[in-house]
Amino acid sequence: MRRYSCFIIFFSLGILAYSFESFAQNQSERQKLLTVWAGMLPIILSAPHGGRRSIPGVPVRRGAGVTQFATGRDNNTDELAETIAIGLEKRLNAKPFMVVARVERKYFDATRPTESAYESREAKPYYDGYHNALQEAHDRVSREWGRGLLLDLHGQGAQAEAIYRGTGNGKTVVSLTQRFGTEAIIGPKSIFNQLELMGYKVLPSTTESHQEQRYVGGYIVQTYGSHRQCGIDAIQLEIGTQLRARANLERTATDLAEAIAVFAQEYLALVKSYIAIEATNLPKILAAIGFSSQNPPLSYFLKKGGSLARSS
Ligand SMILES: [Zn+2]
Q1: What pLDDT shows up at residue 6?
Q2: Mean pLDDT by 10 residues, the chain (312 residues)
Q3: 152 CA distance to ligand 1 centroid (A)?
């Protein structure tokens, strides 16, 4: 009987070890199919349609009953996002947040609501993984910097040499334009005017009509944009085929990084908003370092990590 129960214990442990291992394998498989960076800048890069890999054992989507069904890849936008991120880190001395899908759009589409995004249960964790990572980045930027910019990167073939701007005609950047006016979108330090100065065609151009027509901004900017409560400013960029061609990719990414950095230095609070932390947690922080509210400190300073200390 004892031998028998030992056998059961070993057997159960075996199953446990096996399921843990397969859980860990699934986890690491998922990580390979999604690239996520936690950033130190209030900038988030998203690239949902550049992936080339399949999800093992999952059939491609058929799209029955789905409106605006699309499975096409935005070639090289995954690599473009990474090269922009590296360029931003060089210029601003810190990494942006980044979420890049390595899976083909054929298996799941991060730019659709849940019910139209995937058809197989096995694809759900990848879709959820993408949006959880974006939500987490969005929440951190909103909490730690107060505001920030999400850039959702895509590819289009309608105008091979152009970059389309999509903000729902200003809706998803409403916080930015309320604070700084439309200058922040079309003025000299805007991403789009910077790109024009480098010789790029942007649509709509910063000088003519400001109406966005062809790509007005899809699900991601609509979900995370600043028209939403606690949202951050969000812009969709639709980049022409020619600009994403292998031979031009490095230059396009470098120029985009430069344009975004110019914008960021003018319009983003690149230092975390410690003042907000101070205001909400001041009594608690003061108590923690030995001051009571009846006996406020004569002076104190804010340390880099956001905590208060008595100045000497
Ligand atoms: Zn796309």
Answers
A1: 45
A2: 50 52 61 91 98 93 91 97 98 97 96 94 95 97 95 98 97 97 97 98 89 92 95 97 98 98 96 60 58 42 40 36
A3: 9
Structure tokens at 9: 């214990």
Distances (CA, A) of 149 to 133, 217, 302: 15, 14, 26
Do residues 233 and 148 make contact, with C-beta atoms less than 8 angstroms apart?
Answer: yes
Token output for 32: 């390979």
Task: List, in order of start, the domains of the chain with CATH numbers.
Answer: 26-54+68-267 (3.40.630.40), 274-310 (no CATH)
Q: What three-state secondary structure class fits 106?
A: coil
- Cα separation of 240 and 158, whole Å? 7
Report CA(199)–ligand 1 centroid distance (Å).
24
Identity of the residue numbered 244: R
- Give the tokens for residue 35: 């690239």
> What protein residues have CB closer than 5 angstroms to ion ligand 1?
49, 74, 154
- Output the CA–CA distances (angstroms, integers) from residue 158 to 82, 187, 214, 238, in the order listed: 24, 26, 9, 10
Q: How far apart are CA 87 and CA 57, in angstroms?
A: 37
Distance 49 CA to ligand 1 centre (A): 5
Rounded to whole angstroms, the Cα distance separating 242 from 72 reads: 17
Strands (E), 116-263: 149-156, 162-166, 201-203, 233-240
